[in-house]
Design a protein that fits this description.
Length: 168
Amino acid sequence: MSQTSPHYPLMDLDVADYIPHRKPMILIDLLLEHQEDTLLTQTCISENSAYFDTKLAGVPNYVGIEYMAQSIAALAGIEAKAALQPIRIGFLLGTRKLKFDIDTFIQGETYQTRVSRLYQEDNGLAVFDCQILHQGKIVAQANINVFQPQDTQAYISESIQGREEAQL
């Protein structure tokens, strides 16, 4: 008889175990739903939220790009752990079709971020469709290009060396 592992709700998982960020720079609060190539996360806005602005009584909308990026990182982390691989650092390369329908993520409100992989190359380059929802309505969206090299240290070293050679 085979024994199956117990099932734990995604919401009970610690976000810090799935992304390379550490407090206070962890901006997403919960992992809600995971399907192949897709993750839904949640962020609750409070006075303790990173980038909270008292004048706005919330967080400026541009921080939404980081909610999207950290949700992508969490998806990569879930996939890495499932494959018994380490959590790796990734790089946000750019955005396309970025649109914000709100100016501020309001204190006391909860927002969900859905990221869906549209495309990924073997070298770690990927494109994600990202949406931030408030009460089921899309309030921000973008396509985000990311790169997750197999060997982050080698990638950084090569980048620095290339920059130094270009300056000569």
